[in-house]
Amino acid sequence: MTTDESRGSLRRLLHRLTASEAEIEAQELQRESAESGGTPAHQCNRGQVVSVAGRLRTVVYTPRTNLPTLEADLYDGTDVVTLVWLGRRHIAGIEPGRHLTARGRVAVRDDRKVIYNPYYELESPK
Questions:
Q1: CA distance 100 to 108
Q2: Stated pTM of the model
Q3: What is the pLDDT of residues 70-80, one digit of tens each?
Protein backbone atom coordinates (compact mmCIF):
# COMPACT_ATOMS: atom_id res chain seq x y z
CA MET A 1 0.00 0.00 0.00
CA THR A 2 1.43 3.37 -0.95
CA THR A 3 1.52 6.39 1.33
CA ASP A 4 -1.28 8.13 -0.61
CA GLU A 5 -3.51 5.04 -0.38
CA SER A 6 -2.93 4.69 3.36
CA ARG A 7 -3.71 8.38 3.90
CA GLY A 8 -6.92 7.99 1.88
CA SER A 9 -7.92 4.92 3.89
CA LEU A 10 -7.18 6.68 7.16
CA ARG A 11 -9.12 9.76 6.04
CA ARG A 12 -12.17 7.61 5.13
CA LEU A 13 -11.99 5.78 8.46
CA LEU A 14 -11.80 9.03 10.43
CA HIS A 15 -14.73 10.45 8.46
CA ARG A 16 -16.84 7.35 9.18
CA LEU A 17 -16.01 7.63 12.88
CA THR A 18 -16.79 11.35 13.17
CA ALA A 19 -19.72 11.71 10.72
CA SER A 20 -23.26 11.77 12.02
CA GLU A 21 -25.65 8.95 11.22
CA ALA A 22 -27.58 11.25 8.86
CA GLU A 23 -24.40 12.10 6.91
CA ILE A 24 -23.48 8.43 6.54
CA GLU A 25 -27.03 7.59 5.41
CA ALA A 26 -26.97 10.44 2.86
CA GLN A 27 -23.65 9.23 1.44
CA GLU A 28 -24.98 5.68 1.16
CA LEU A 29 -28.13 6.88 -0.63
CA GLN A 30 -26.02 8.99 -3.02
CA ARG A 31 -23.87 5.96 -3.83
CA GLU A 32 -26.91 3.72 -4.42
CA SER A 33 -28.55 6.37 -6.60
CA ALA A 34 -25.42 6.74 -8.72
CA GLU A 35 -25.17 2.95 -9.12
CA SER A 36 -28.76 2.77 -10.38
CA GLY A 37 -28.08 5.55 -12.91
CA GLY A 38 -30.28 8.14 -11.22
CA THR A 39 -29.88 11.89 -11.59
CA PRO A 40 -28.95 13.52 -8.26
CA ALA A 41 -32.04 15.37 -7.01
CA HIS A 42 -30.11 18.58 -6.37
CA GLN A 43 -29.26 18.70 -10.11
CA CYS A 44 -32.86 18.33 -11.30
CA ASN A 45 -34.33 21.43 -12.94
CA ARG A 46 -37.84 22.47 -13.92
CA GLY A 47 -38.97 20.89 -17.20
CA GLN A 48 -36.21 18.27 -17.22
CA VAL A 49 -37.14 14.60 -17.67
CA VAL A 50 -35.20 12.69 -15.01
CA SER A 51 -34.79 9.36 -13.30
CA VAL A 52 -34.34 9.73 -9.54
CA ALA A 53 -33.57 6.86 -7.16
CA GLY A 54 -33.78 6.96 -3.39
CA ARG A 55 -35.79 6.17 -0.27
CA LEU A 56 -39.34 7.31 0.48
CA ARG A 57 -39.34 9.44 3.61
CA THR A 58 -43.04 10.22 3.90
CA VAL A 59 -46.22 9.12 2.17
CA VAL A 60 -49.37 11.21 2.64
CA TYR A 61 -52.87 10.85 1.26
CA THR A 62 -54.50 14.24 0.74
CA PRO A 63 -58.27 13.93 0.42
CA ARG A 64 -59.79 16.66 -1.70
CA THR A 65 -63.34 16.85 -2.95
CA ASN A 66 -62.38 17.35 -6.58
CA LEU A 67 -59.11 15.34 -6.85
CA PRO A 68 -57.53 13.17 -4.15
CA THR A 69 -53.73 12.85 -4.27
CA LEU A 70 -51.07 10.54 -2.89
CA GLU A 71 -47.80 12.35 -2.20
CA ALA A 72 -44.44 10.82 -1.29
CA ASP A 73 -41.11 12.51 -0.52
CA LEU A 74 -38.22 10.72 -2.24
CA TYR A 75 -34.78 11.44 -0.73
CA ASP A 76 -31.59 10.47 -2.56
CA GLY A 77 -29.01 11.90 -0.17
CA THR A 78 -28.74 15.25 -1.96
CA ASP A 79 -32.29 16.67 -1.99
CA VAL A 80 -35.97 15.72 -1.87
CA VAL A 81 -38.28 15.29 -4.85
CA THR A 82 -42.01 15.04 -4.13
CA LEU A 83 -43.83 12.38 -6.14
CA VAL A 84 -47.54 13.12 -6.67
CA TRP A 85 -50.07 10.63 -7.97
CA LEU A 86 -53.30 12.40 -8.90
CA GLY A 87 -56.58 10.60 -8.25
CA ARG A 88 -54.97 7.88 -6.10
CA ARG A 89 -55.69 7.04 -2.48
CA HIS A 90 -53.24 4.17 -2.10
CA ILE A 91 -50.62 2.36 -4.19
CA ALA A 92 -49.37 -1.03 -3.05
CA GLY A 93 -45.70 -0.85 -2.06
CA ILE A 94 -45.59 2.95 -1.80
CA GLU A 95 -44.75 3.31 1.88
CA PRO A 96 -42.12 5.09 3.99
CA GLY A 97 -38.72 3.41 3.93
CA ARG A 98 -39.12 1.76 0.51
CA HIS A 99 -36.43 2.29 -2.11
CA LEU A 100 -37.59 3.13 -5.60
CA THR A 101 -36.64 4.73 -8.88
CA ALA A 102 -39.03 7.32 -10.30
CA ARG A 103 -39.05 8.79 -13.80
CA GLY A 104 -40.86 11.87 -15.04
CA ARG A 105 -40.76 15.58 -15.80
CA VAL A 106 -39.78 17.87 -12.93
CA ALA A 107 -42.10 20.71 -11.97
CA VAL A 108 -41.68 23.23 -9.16
CA ARG A 109 -44.50 23.84 -6.68
CA ASP A 110 -44.02 26.09 -3.64
CA ASP A 111 -40.23 26.05 -4.25
CA ARG A 112 -40.21 22.23 -4.10
CA LYS A 113 -39.31 19.82 -6.89
CA VAL A 114 -42.31 17.70 -7.90
CA ILE A 115 -42.91 14.90 -10.38
CA TYR A 116 -46.59 14.32 -11.18
CA ASN A 117 -47.78 10.77 -11.93
CA PRO A 118 -44.25 9.36 -12.20
CA TYR A 119 -43.33 6.02 -13.66
CA TYR A 120 -41.74 4.07 -10.83
CA GLU A 121 -39.97 0.83 -10.05
CA LEU A 122 -39.94 -0.52 -6.51
CA GLU A 123 -36.71 -2.06 -5.29
CA SER A 124 -36.97 -5.36 -3.44
CA PRO A 125 -36.98 -4.92 0.36
CA LYS A 126 -33.56 -5.40 1.98
A1: 21
A2: 0.77
A3: 999 999 988 89
